[in-house]
Write a structure and sequence with these properties.
2 copies of one chain form a homodimer. With 427 residues, the first copy, chain A, is α/β, with parallel strands linked by helices. Chain A has helices at 9-12, 18-28, 47-59, 61-68, 77-91, 95-98, 110-122, 137-145, 162-174, 200-213, 273-287, 292-303, 307-333, 365-372, 405-424; strands spanning 33-34, 105-108, 128-132, 149-153, 155-156, 159-160, 181-187, 220-224, 250-255, 267-270, 340-341, 349-353, 375-376, 378-379, 387-388, 395-399. Chain A has 15 helices and 16 strands. Chain A is globular, with a radius of gyration of 22 Å.
């Protein structure tokens, strides 16, 4: 009787996030060991600290009432100052960061909303973003939703390869498409999905490269530093942002979702001045600004000095889980020819590479076999841009954040059975 | 040295929200009495209730940990059930609402995000939304941001006029543009800016009218019920949604921002089944779902039965302020020929109509004169769609929510001085 709904072009392209399909599968089988979800370890979530900080936030009636009122679109000024101070401290206060002002800080619903806002501010349909290969698949979904084009750039143990970016940009220039390149997206610490950290020399090189290529048409460098606090070995590196001496090139995204609690959803961005007004305007239309209460809560957590001890506790938990995953991999996967993985020094993921030709994707035999063994992973194929560097289907992302060590052990053992069986069946 | 930033088309059109310009002006003059901001009364914000409910949410460690984890994109199932139960109770449980399922409820960052999501899901550039005249200016800004076209429809004391919609749709049909009409936007209770409530007969008529016009191309009815709980006189009316017996026509938006606290930012939508997946996908890209903690907090407030007493307290406060504004208007404005206003029975606004020809807009003499008298209002011109019913610049929105009664009194007195002066100067 009624005519069909005519969705917008954007809505038609919005359904591409593969993780929701995986979550539906996970919920349907309660015996399943999911090594797929990028959730944080529920056991370590900071209940007492949250209660303590919330009490502080609500203790002074006048302050508490202000907290329950609308905030501003950019967010609570005290928290913006605090995240800026923390960044300066972490980066050793180089010249580039002394120039930063809180007017460039916007508080968002997780770092993901910052990525969405920046993409929406910069990208018209057909515009181009260069990404590492592999890269964060949720951001690929966002680009697809905006009808932008993602181009994959080769990576190695030091992260995205500047020479490969250079080559790609030259290629696009020859095609007359350099003007469509709006940004390069880089996860600078323990990236999702490979846990690789961009090396210090590459950071310096990348900023210079992007500045050089921006002479005719502006290209931004989007730094996703969501996993920076989750380092288990080695020394912290200064942010990619700290190499941006002009302050006009790097867009930095961070979040308390991984280092504190995703259920509070406070992230932030540090924006080049030219992007502050456009991002604030878009955010004004989206939600009038993120919840004031949550921002004041995180501000109190920082003020009371409760974040560092929590991160220390978190890290020791994740280190134990990472060790469990690596031990299980050593025990169950080492003797399968062609299977290898890196030892991450931070983050939440182990990137597993299978023999060439073994398809770990959702259309392949391994996916079904693994589900039959009650174990789930994120197929690596989701993490590849559709253009540029080819898709490597013999890969998968394994998360060690959610499951307890014994379940990680059992999950890797089940995965090993599945891989062996598929290989025995001829791939 | 660097080339200029190339913003997206959307970002270029996102700066149109006039309220941010007003807020900047208000901040610049601390002696200003702002009758512009649609904020809620800060004095009545529920600090104790929030503290009590938060304690409850965090009291059980396992539940508290789950609360601090990511939630789902649609939101907490318990709160979705609660808002549905409340709607059924408020509407007297008609047939149409028994059929509703929590799968159709999505929790958002205020009702505003729901409006944005629905607009983004339905509207391609050039698509048409019919709106009351005047209407909620923030939504007009959203439509403009999406390059959609807003058409103003005449209203009277019962709200938007169905015959005028009918006429407009026939006109668009003749122009071959009926297929571009995606929705009619209606604030069903104490609308922003006029405080008019859509009458019961109009509710029934509107749903039928939209169903009739949807035979060839689907048209939705967007019901913004943000102010429903703020009724100071008369009996509640069943929602527009409750007249939608098929469940496929009305999109309903509500919020706890006005009835509880905007700083917590929990709103929700009830969606026709065809829109659930598209809206959830878009929201997944925006923010992965709104903060779980805030949803559990509001769920506890409801479960503990703390909302009703708070609303009762709120209403008595706003009633006092409304009375102060009406008394001041009687005292200072009655004797100015051609000035008139309605007596609202709910909401937060008084809509003031000035003599024809007196321009209350930002380009007119009154605006500058009022600022010189340290009083600010929202120029009515912002509340008119650019097409359809003509803009009436001799209008303004006055908010009584924020200021205390003595400041309301002083503000109206100052406004009266400004109006008299401009009239004496010849308009």
């Amino acid at each position: 009787m009624f005519s069909a709904t005519q969705l917008s072009g954007r809505a038609k392209r919005a359904g591409g996030q593969p993780i929701s399909r995986l979550m539906t599968l996970a919920l349907a089988d309660p015996t399943l060991i999911s090594l797929a979800a990028g959730f944080v370890d529920q056991q370590t979530l900071p209940v007492e600290i949250t209660a303590q900080a919330m009490e502080q936030v609500l203790s002074d009636p006048a302050e508490a009432r202000a907290t329950l009122q609308y905030g501003t679109t950019l967010g609570d000024a005290r928290l913006r100052q605090q995240v800026l101070d923390r960044l300066r401290h972490a980066d050793g206060n180089p010249e580039a960061e002394r120039k930063l002002s809180i007017d460039q800080v916007v508080l968002t619903a997780g770092s993901n909303q910052l990525l969405y806002l920046v993409a929406d501010a910069l990208l018209d349909p057909g515009d181009i973003v260069l990404c590492a290969t592999p890269t964060y698949f949720v951001f690929l979904g966002v680009l697809d939703n905006l009808s932008a084009r993602a181009w994959g750039i080769a990576t190695d143990a030091e992260g995205i390869i500047p020479a490969a970016i250079d080559e790609q940009l030259r290629h696009l220039e020859r095609r007359g498409e350099l003007g469509r390149v709006k940004a390069i997206y880089v996860t600078s610490y323990f990236d999702n999905p490979t846990s690789v950290t961009l090396s210090a020399p590459r950071r310096a090189e990348l900023v210079k490269l992007v500045e050089r290529w921006s002479r005719t048409s502006k290209i931004y460098l989007i730094e996703d530093a969501a996993y920076r606090p989750l380092r288990y070995a080695g020394d912290d590196l200064p942010s990619l942002r700290s190499y941006d001496t002009t302050g006009e090139t790097v867009i930095a995204a961070e979040t308390f979702s991984k280092s504190f609690a995703p259920g509070i959803r406070v992230g932030w961005g540090i924006l080049p001045p030219a992007l502050v007004e456009p991002v604030a305007s878009l955010k004004g239309n989206f939600d009038f600004g993120s919840p004031h209460l949550n921002q004041r809560l995180m501000s109190a957590v920082l003020e009371m000095g409760l974040l560092e001890e929590h991160i220390a506790r978190l890290k020791s938990g994740y280190q134990r889980k990472l060790a469990a995953m690596l031990a299980a991999a050593d025990a169950f996967l080492t003797d399968i020819p062609g299977v290898h993985w890196r030892h991450p020094s931070g983050g939440l993921y182990v990137w597993l590479v299978l023999p060439p030709g073994l398809n770990a994707g959702m259309e392949g035999a391994l996916w079904k076999r693994a589900l039959a063994e009650h174990v789930m992973y994120v197929p690596g194929e989701f993490c590849f841009a559709s253009k540029g560097h080819p898709v490597e289907r013999n890969t998968m992302r394994l998360s060690f954040g959610v499951q307890q060590p014994d379940r990680i052990h059992d999950g890797i053992e089940a995965l090993s059975r599945a891989i062996r069986q598929v290989l025995a069946d001829g791939g």
